[in-house]
Specification:
Length: about 210
């Protein structure tokens, strides 16, 4: 997970190494993506348990039960994972409109590592007064920054298509991650109730009472 700092401060070197090593799905999933998402959900869940979350709509600190936290973090975990997978698929489709012959693994590699700043700043959501939109905004801004160096090295587009692919890709990243953040932020800020949703009822069968 320390790679995120190299991606932010030495993006050209870090992306070059990612492109050269050509890691597979299993390696990226087990050593980078899943641990990063799990760490963020665990840290945020710990903060919700100890401090709750400030909800400006109601002008209160909301206290969450253990069951609510488990249900919310489980939903968020799968939502973040799905966001990466869907975003990678969309980036692949976008690259194909520029007549590039890429595989899903390349798009997945780009997305999994490219989302690193979003996952990193998600850790700051542990603070009870931290706005979910603030952490997402900083994270996605840095993601847009590092993808500028990552797309040419990982997807290897034709130079005449590189900037167009970059613009299309960042639109996909902002859209997919923004939709995921909208759902979770609305719940944390008191605009949505997952407690009585169908998904929460289904997950409750697998969670302790």
């Amino acid at each position: 997970m320390i790679k995120v700092f190299f991606l932010m401060f030495e993006p050209a070197v870090a992306w070059e190494k990612v492109a050269q090593t050509k890691r597979g799905y299993a390696f990226i999933f087990t050593t980078y993506l899943l641990p990063f998402i799990l760490l963020g959900t665990a840290v945020e869940g710990w903060g919700l348990h100890h401090w709750g979350k400030w909800q400006p709509k109601l002008q209160i600190f909301k206290d969450f039960t253990a069951h609510e936290i488990l249900a919310y973090e489980a939903i968020q975990f799968f939502l973040l994972l799905a966001t990466v997978l869907v975003c990678a698929l969309l980036v692949l489709r976008v690259s194909q409109t520029f007549h590039e012959r890429n595989r899903y693994l390349k798009a997945f590699t780009l997305t999994a590592y490219g989302f690193s700043p979003i996952f990193l700043f998600h850790l700051l959501d542990v603070a009870p007064r931290m706005s979910p939109w603030a952490t997402w905004g900083v994270g996605v801004g840095l993601t847009v920054w590092i993808l500028y160096q990552g797309i040419p090295r990982v997807l290897q587009p034709d130079p005449t298509h590189a900037f167009g692919l970059y613009l299309s890709s960042i639109f996909v990243v902002i859209l997919t991650s923004g939709l995921a953040r909208l759902i979770t932020a609305m719940y944390l800020l008191g605009y949505m109730d997952f407690q009585h949703s169908w998904l929460t009822r289904e997950l409750s069968h697998f969670l302790p009472n």
